[in-house]
Amino acid sequence: MNKDLTVGKAENVLWKFCIPLFGSVIFQQLYNIADSLIAGKLIGENALAAVGNSYEITLIFLAFAVGCNIGCSVIVSQLFGAKKIEEMKTGVYTALIASGVTCAILMVSGILFGKDLLYLIRTPENIFTDSALYLTIYIWGLPFMFFYNIATGIFSALGDSKTPFIFLAISSTANIAVDIFFVQSLHMGVAGVAWATFLCQGVSCILAMVVVFKRLAGMHTRGKYPIYSWTLFAKFARVAVPSILQQSFISVGNIVIQSVINGFGSGVIAGYSAAIKLNNLVITSFTTLANGISNFTAQNLGANKLYRIKEGFRAGIKMVWMLCIPLVLLYLLAGRYLVLLFMNEPTDAAMDTGVIFLRIVAPFYFVVSMKLVADGVLRGSGLMERFMAATFTDLILRVVLAIVFSKSSLGATGIWLAWPIGWSTATVLSVMFYRKGPWANAQKAKYCE
Asked: Directed axis angle between helix 190-217 and helix 125-140, to 10°?
């Protein structure tokens, strides 16, 4: 059901809205973690390395899908908060059309140049064939990923975080079962892992879009409305393009880092693949909660209730830090056992890589989570230049320092040190930008909600 995020105590509203979002991201990550876990346990260490190696390239495509998701979600949230239903529906269809064109361009590019990217990041010969196979199947499934992301963005914009949670819970659970069936029973290898994700995400996408159209049809309008608007496309692009650039540059940066890691051999690649999946589970959780804060911010900005944005920021910090405590302890104390989930008989290089990475980055989850909450507010209010400045600072620092430190006596361990430095510097910028936002001096209205 649709939910107005502009009324009620901000903290309570945000908790109720974000808890299903957090559940959704857990199941979303099961897609990626299941692929790596099953590849490593049922096929072998090289298969894990191949999936992890291709994963860094797939993040480029995901960056575009997530950027379109955010652009659609922010615009629809603002219009929904302002009760402009006709214009909101036009915004939804405009975003769907723009995203479809973007997806088609990416598919053609991926099919033509996917293997070139694998060569570019110095993919080891012993995992190249499996990496290319996994990547190719993934590219054919891009329409499902794109339109599913747009659907979830629309649900979130309307204050509905429960519907995408239900879809993800069912599809990700099915994905694990199909993964195991394709790999263990049909002996399809890495291709089985990729096809399982393709099929399950396809079903989720189709069902989600059906519900979106039914939801829109149930929101009555006074008359006909245009299917496409260049004005709304410009507003969509103003949020989506910086988000895409941000996500894309992060992905490109990760590919550069992956190419540095690839120089240390398949053992280090496998250990990093396992650890980065665990790390991404946390970061994606924070990012999803931050996206919820973006929706909260956008709706309240549309309703001109700026004081609630400050309340939402404080509530967001409390949420992510409560999440940090158990996760940091888990990764620090049980990192070795978590890495073992991905491999049966890991080499020393693979195990040491995974454990050391988690021990270095986990304590800084408290820092980066604050950045992501501030970014959520900036993004929801359309302050994309500030958002991008902080994000690019993080990325540039991590890439440059990873290259420099990898050539030092620290070797591969030096690469992992780039994460805390980049995160800490960018957090200072994001919080500073947030504190200078238009809501800085907003006062709560005298009336009670």
From this structure: 20
**Residue 70 in this model has a pLDDT that exceeds 90:** no
Alpha helices in 141-229 (DSSP H): 142-157, 162-180, 190-217
Token pair 């049966």: residue: 344
Handedness of CA 231, 236, 241, 246 (dihedral sign): positive
| Measured CA angle at 383 (ends 313, 229), to 5 deg | 120
User: Which DSSP letter does residue 185 get?
Assistant: I
Count of positions (residues) in the chain:
449
Task: Give me the DSSP letters along 297-332.
Answer: HHHHHHTT-THHHHHHHHHHHHHHHHHHHHHHHHHH
Residue 352's closest CA among 282, 265, 281?
265
Q: What tokens does 68 get?
A: 């379109």
Continuous H helices in 82-141: 85-120, 125-140
Distance CA(106)–CA(415), nearest Å, equals: 30
Read off the pLDDT of each residue in 348-353 and give the average, rounded to a whole number.
86
Do 268 and 348 touch, CB atoms closer than 8 A? no
Print burial letters for 109-121: b (CB count within 10 Å at least 16), e (below 16).
Answer: ebeeebeebbeeb
pLDDT single digits (tens) 142-174: 999 899 889 988 888 888 878 878 887 888 788
Poorest-pLDDT segment among 31-45, 152-166, 207-221, 379-393: 31-45
Q: Are 366 and 328 in contact (CB under 8 A)?
A: yes
DSSP one-letter code for 182:
I
Is the per-residue pLDDT at 328 higher than 90?
A: yes
CA distance 202 to 146: 10
> What distance in Å separates the CA atoms of residue 58 and residue 285, rounded to the nearest whole number?
19
Torsion-angle region of 447 (φ positive above 0: left; ψ -120 to 50: alpha; else: beta):
beta
Structure tokens at 10: 């901000």
Percent composition of the chain: helix, strand, coil (DSSP 3-state, to 5): 85, 0, 15
Residue 393 in tokens: 């600072």
Residue listed under structure tokens 């107005």: 4
Instruction: Provide the total of helices (H) and of strands (E) in the chain, helices listed first.
Output: 15, 0
For residues 207 and 33, the model is more confident at 207
In the numeric block, the tokens 């099929």 are attached to: 199
For residue 360, the one-letter residue type is I
* Spatial distance between the Cα atoms of 211 and 209, rounded to a whole number of angstroms: 5
398's tokens: 């991590």
**Which H or E element spans position 23?**
helix 10-38
What pLDDT score was predicted for residue 98? Answer: 93
In angstroms, the Cα distances linking 141 to 19, 30, 48, 98, 363 are 28, 17, 20, 18, 36
